[in-house]
Amino acid sequence: MPGSNQTPPRIEEFIIIGFPGFRDTDSQTTIFGSLLAIYICILLGNLLIVIIFLHDKNLHSPMYILITNLALTDILVSSATVPKLLSILRSGSGVISFAACFLQMFSYYSMTNVESFLLVLMAYDRYLAICNPLHYVTLTSNSLVLRQIGWCWACAFLIVIVPLSPSVALAFCGSNIVNHFFCDHSALLKLACSDTTINNYAGLCLVICVLIFPLLCILFSYTKVIISVLRISSNDGRLKAFSTCSTQLMVIAIFFLVASGVYISNRVPNTSADVRIFAALIQTILPPLMNPIIYCIRNAEIREKMSRKTSPCICSAIHFLYCG
């Protein structure tokens, strides 16, 4: 028959479903309102850290440079996916072009990589400060930390390019419905009508580079820190040393535990799509939401700067948003 050997046309756009089990108007309105409030808190909290850092030269030290860069990364991570999801929930249309889909995927994974690498740098900074306090000033500096951050960004982009580049060349000629809340790599691979073996292995390498290897580096650093702290003879000294790194440990735990949960949920058979999608959404919004609470509200130095540089009304409003 004429035309029987013709291949289906290449997909030019995708349709992001969002949450398959919550397609009714009431559910989408509830999710939209909750997500919008969370996104506003993420923007306000992380922007506040950036503004305080820029306006106070006393905070221009390696540790606070890293905290400020983490705040910027949190804004970019959430902004890569949340605005589009809000638009989908509001309008009901999840249409996204082929190029925009892969741009969103690249942006999200790049920023997630940057955050993972920044947490490694922050763990290393605490290692130097606690294990080598007398040489801390000579071992690190603002210019050195800025160069390290630059390498984090460069490596994050390069690591993403390797697994995602083959995905662009895949043939998408069947369904164009993405069963996720954004253009997730694994969700897109399910739509490809060509062999995705290489892509799956590339995705595994990405997980190793972004989750497992950084986590091992962090665990090594904090093992050294704990050993060093336990050798301190003074109880007050031990408490002070633990308090300086406990904040970072909370941030690290939130990021890696949530990310590990998402990775495991994607590989547990018979897990509902909504559970996997909500787990990925929590990974996107929970660390950016919690980091300002941990670093800004619980950090006495930043809290003092915040109270002096913002009006009592604004300060109270921010405290209400984050602490209730």
Quick structural gist:
Helices cover 74% and strands 3% of the residues. It is an all-alpha fold and 324 residues long.
Note down, in words, how this protein is organized.
With 324 residues, this protein is an all-alpha fold. The chain has one domain: Up-down Bundle (Rhopdopsin 7-helix transmembrane proteins), CATH 1.20.1070.10. It is 74% helix and 3% strand. It is built from twelve helices and three strands; from the N terminus they run E-H-H-H-E-H-H-H-E-H-H-H-H-H-H. A three-stranded mixed beta sheet has the order 2-1-3. The longest helix is centred in the middle third of the chain and has 34 residues, at 98-131. It is globular. The N and C termini lie far apart (69 Å). The mean pLDDT is 81.
Secondary-structure blueprint of this entry?
Elements: E1 13-16, H1 25-55, H2 62-79, H3 82-91, E2 95-97, H4 98-131, H5 136-139, H6 142-168, E3 177-178, H7 185-189, H8 197-230, H9 235-265, H10 273-297, H11 300-309, H12 312-323
Parallel strand pairs: 1-3
Antiparallel strand pairs: 1-2
Helix pairs in contact: 1-2, 1-3, 1-10, 2-4, 2-6, 2-10, 4-6, 4-8, 4-9, 6-8, 8-9, 9-10
